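We both want to read discrete structure tokens more fluently, so let's practise on a single case. Would you supply a protein for us yourself, any chain you care to pick? Would you write everything just below, so we can both look at the same thing?
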Amino acid sequence: MPNSQHLVRSRPSSARRLLSAFLVLLSLCCALPSLHAEPVYTLQQLVDMAMQQHPRLQAAREQVNAARAAVETARALPKPEVEWNGGRQRARLPGAPAGSVQSLSLTQRLDLPPQRAARIDAAGAFVTAEQAQLRTVERDQLRRIKLHYHELRRRQAEFGTAVEDMRTSAQILERVTVRVNTGEAPRYDAIKADAEFLNAQKSMEAARLRVETARALLRNAVGADLPAQFELAAETPELPELPPLEALQRQALANNADLAQVRALTARAREQVRLERSLRLPAVAVRAGYDQDPEVRGSRVGLVVSIPIWDRRQGPVAEAGAQLSRLQYEQSQSEFALRQNLEAAYRQYQISRNQVAALESGILRQAEEALRVAEAAYRFGERGILDYLDAQRVFRNARNELIAARYEVQAAMVDIQTLHQE
């Protein structure tokens, strides 16, 4: 009698589980038409959309425009200075003339060729650095879009498998409930199947939330023009064969945008040192003047030279030299870090690709075959529910590992492309 009471109590719980599973699956099926109505984007469309309107890229482009304007500023000539003085002359002695007096002078500071060339070259190097910074921003934005794109595809695949797992768990729970009610299986099987169903339901809900998070991150990387709800086009990215690591490293050292920026900043610092040293030269200005009083009129032309006696610009020259040394050290470190990061991404790509091949060719198929055998054995009473659920769990883990490995190989390829391209 106690066993029958516990059995009767388990029936409403199982029925509620099955009813909730039916409602969840029904809601998912009802949501399918709305999914088809949402706009569908390919990866290239998302990239084009971001490159055209993302505020981060627009800000970087404006920084390049500001650097070009700084070149025009460096090319500008010094402004002439005009001085005019006027007044009256009064006689203090008899016979001395009285009347108005005035003077006019024009001073033009000369832009010495060494200083001008160094200043313009430093501004030009800064433009090169800002252009490299723009390429770095575009490259980083492209990397974010690709990673979040593959992340969303991964989460959608996980959500699809989670829905399938919940559907399978509901079928198992229904089947086990029937066998328990007919006395063909112990009540423990129903408890275990019920727990598996609850776990599958929890995993499905978590997978759905991860899909929404990944979609929000991708939208943030693309920009506000991308609608809140969208879908990705079904694309099957290829896994290319990579050239040797040494060839990739040579390409990266020649094309990497970060290195290009550091090199441009180093060139700018070198020109700044040259500019600071040229500023030790005396500043020269040409002055022309005109004077008029009641008796005479006079004109004059001369030079104004500032003699660098007290200030030899030792401080600015030393500061510019220290900045140049710092950037040279940073360039060496950046080159070393680039080689190491590229090698790590290269190895990760090989490892992940081997994992994908192993899972697709052997492990997943064996787990699926073991699941079919365990299901048949449980159906004919040769195996218990634990063996069946364990086989299902092994198959589920292998399938999830394949999804994760496919994402890892794509992420490694994105890192390789980011490091060795401009």
Summary: The chain has one domain: 2-89+99-420.
